[in-house]
Structure formats: structure tokens, C-alpha cells
Design brief:
single chain; alpha+beta; four-stranded parallel β-sheet; 11 helices
């Protein structure tokens, strides 16, 4: 988010050219990375100090199961009545030639220098967020995505609007362009597409998604069932195959792989270990791509609503020319809100535009609280704000 904020400052300034503000603004990449480290570098030690202050013993080393209620950290054996797996996620293996030449998202955020030509593999969160950051810093950016639509799980109409906006801004987004491999060419790199096209570049970044980081834990030795989405857990986040084991966050099979979900699941697991009987059943979870502009969603897509047999009104609104977009120089904005026809309740909301990352929280509260479209229309929203536009979206 630190990198995104810097990009937003540059992008908003450039969008206001000719509208009053004058002069040029650019990103000093080394200075930005140094500023970012002011947030990230102290975190591990401060967290460990906090844990030690609370009486928590911290162990360092690679952990793996040696039995249903035992594991080893390095060579040291440990056992416990309760073991919580919260190992997070790692980049999904690409399975391509030259994969070792591809940077992870962590590598990108730690890079002291930014390549002049950058290729992102995949069209998910990471690529669409970092692409505009790199472009704002002056890089020539290409995103290569294997299928026809980027950002799977988000509203396809709004995702298409975002892609077209990126292309107009000079970011090349290639769909149906699977990557076959990455090669060295002197001091440069070449991304080879399946159709044989070769894209010379200076940096290749993995943006094709992440998977639960479970491989080194030897879950089989612990009798812990798991799958592609993580440790198989019940509604209480307890392992379905080993009652000693719990899982939370990206390591668990339930819930979206998002920070607030992981935090909430961590609290839930702790409460259940201490004797609670709390089920993980979020009424609504917002999800945001910090693209330019942000793309946000909560609840169902049109396809999911149809699969559940719900009859909904879902009107695509292009608000690019609305005052809330024009005054900040936004290239594109739009929305699609799903309202159940019989009850008027909101079952899904999809927003693209300035302040979408904040306005989506209003729709989340509305869904959790059972508010209807009529309820939202009746609210005297502050003007002019992103919230004011809600009455025209439902």
C-alpha cells in the first residue's frame, strides 16, 4: 500500500495537467523503497518483542510434523495439545523454463532499482496492482495473462473496463497470452509466449497467484488432511482429520485469502482453543484490487447469483463522466450492484473508481445488517462524496 500510495500521488497529479496544477512529478524509486522499509523492517522484531513481553516463547527454524501432536523445529522435538498452522502463502509454481529468473512479489517490493521494461506473468491481484505502480515510476509495463479475462472472481464487465483503461494509459495487457518460458539474453531477459512471440525486458515478475505454504510441514506425518486450498478444516477451523490441529489464514481451506480474514480466523481459533464454540461464517467479506483506479467487490457476482437461483437486478453503470470521477481526473469508473428483486436486499456490490476501496465497506455493512436498496436511497449522504453516488447505483 505504501507503493500504491506513491503511484496514486503521481497518477492524480498527471491526471490534473491542464486543470490548474502545473509541473511534473515523478517517483524516486530508491527513496520510495527506503520509505517502505520504514514500515516493514521493524515489524518482525517489534512483533517478537511484543510476544516475549506477553510470555510467549518464540522458536526460530523450519518446522515439520513428526506425529499427530508433535513436531520438530530444526532438530528440537516439541509436542502440544493444540497446534495452529498459520504458515501463509507462497507464489504458485509456474512450471515454465527459466522460472528461476522470475522475481516474486516480495523481490519486486525489495528491488533497489526498477527495470525499464517489466513483464508481469498472470492477470491477478499482484500484476494489476504492481503494473500501475511500475508504470507510474516510469517503466514500460506488459501484463501477460493466459486466459481471456483478468481478475477472476471479480465482475467481468468492470474488469474489462479496467483493462481498457490500462491500455489507454500505456500499460500493455495481453490476454490469451500464456508464457512458455523466460530466457537470458546477455544482460537482458526475454519472455517467450506460447505462440512463439518473444518479449525483451529487464525484469519479469510473478503475478500468477499464490498457494498455501504447506509443503515443508510434512502434514502427512501429522495425519493432517489438506488440499489445493489448504488444510481441510471444519466450520470451527479445526482439522477434519486431526483434532490437535487448527489452521487460520491462507493455510486454511475456508475463507478468502485476505488479511482481515486471516486476522479474524486467528482470533476465532484462539477463542475455540480456550473453550469457545465459534463457527467461521462471515456474512460478507469485501475484496479489493488496489489498481488504478481500485476495483472492489463484496458478495455475489451475477454468475453466482444465477447458480443460486436468485432473481436479481444488476445494472452496469458507467460513471466515468460523473463529477466524482472527472474532478479527480479518473480515467474510468463504474459499478454494478446486485439487488434481489423480491426483497430489495443487496446480495452483491462491485465498484470501480476513486474511493471504491472505501465505499465498498458501506455495501458490506448493508449486507451484514440486512439493509435494502430502499434503505440506502433514504440515507442523506454527505455531498460531494463517494457515498453520495450510492443512491444512483441501487
Amino acid at each position: 500500500k505504501v507503493l500504491v500510495t506513491a503511484a496514486e500521488v503521481v497518477e492524480r497529479a498527471r491526471a490534473q495537467r491542464g486543470h490548474g496544477p502545473a509541473g511534473d512529478l515523478r517517483i524516486d524509486w530508491p527513496a520510495l523503497i527506503a520509505f517502505k522499509r520504514g514500515f516493514t523492517d521493524p515489524a518482525p522484531q517489534s512483533t517478537e518483542d511484543y510476544l516475549k513481553g506477553a510470555g510467549v516463547e518464540t522458536l526460530h527454524g523450519d518446522a515439520h510434523f513428526t506425529g499427530p501432536a508433535s513436531l520438530a523445529v530444526g532438530e528440537a522435538p516439541h509436542s502440544a495439545e493444540h497446534i495452529v498452522i498459520a504458515s501463509g502463502a507462497r507464489p504458485m509454481p509456474l512450471g515454465i523454463e527459466g522460472e528461476e529468473l522470475v522475481l516474486t512479489s516480495e523481490d519486486f517490493m525489495a528491488a533497489e532499482r526498477l527495470g525499464e521494461r517489466i513483464v508481469f506473468i498472470g492477470g491477478g491481484f499482484i500484476s494489476m496492482e504492481f503494473a500501475h505502480v511500475a508504470a507510474a515510476a516510469g517503466a514500460s509495463v506488459t501484463v501477460c495473462h493466459r486466459s481471456a479475462s483478468v481478475l477472476k472472481g471479480f465482475d467481468p464487465d468492470l474488469a474489462t473496463m479496467l483493462v481498457e483503461s490500462y491500455r489507454k494509459a500505456g500499460i500493455e495487457v495481453r490476454t490469451e497470452a500464456p508464457v512458455l518460458g523466460v530466457e537470458l539474453d546477455g544482460d537482458a531477459l526475454v519472455v517467450v509466449l506460447r505462440d512463439g512471440e518473444r518479449l525483451p525486458c529487464d525484469m519479469v515478475v510473478h503475478g500468477a497467484g499464490r498457494i498455501p505454504d504447506l509443503e515443508a510441514l510434512d502434514l502427512v506425518a501429522g495425519g493432517v488432511a489438506f488440499g489445493r486450498r489448504g488444510v481441510d478444516v471444519d466450520e470451527h477451523l479445526r482439522s477434519v482429520s486431526n483434532h490437535h490441529v487448527w489452521a487460520a489464514g491462507d493455510a486454511a481451506s475456508r475463507g478468502l485469502p485476505l488479511t482481515p480474514v486471516g486476522v479474524g480466523q486467528g482470533h476465532l481459533v484462539a477463542r475455540n482453543i480456550l473453550g469457545g464454540d465459534v463457527a467461521f461464517d462471515p456474512a460478507a467479506t469485501p475484496s479489493i484490487v488496489f489498481s488504478d483506479p481500485p476495483l472492489a467487490m463484496v458478495g455475489l457476482t451475477e454468475e453466482q447469483a444465477a447458480e443460486q437461483g436468485l432473481k436479481v437486478a444488476a445494472r452496469l453503470v458507467d460513471s466515468t463522466e460523473w463529477a466524482t470521477s472527472r474532478r479527480v481526473g479518473a480515467h474510468v469508473s463504474g459499478a454494478k450492484v446486485l439487488v434481489e428483486q423480491e426483497t430489495g436486499r443487496i446480495v452483491g456490490a462491485h465498484l470501480l473508481g476513486h474511493n471504491a476501496e472505501e465505499v465498498i465497506n458501506v455495501f458490506t455493512v448493508a449486507m451484514v445488517g440486512g439493509l435494502t436498496a430502499a434503505d440506502l436511497k433514504a440515507v442523506p449522504w454527505a455531498y460531494p462524496t463517494g457515498g453520495w453516488d450510492i443512491v444512483y447505483l441501487v
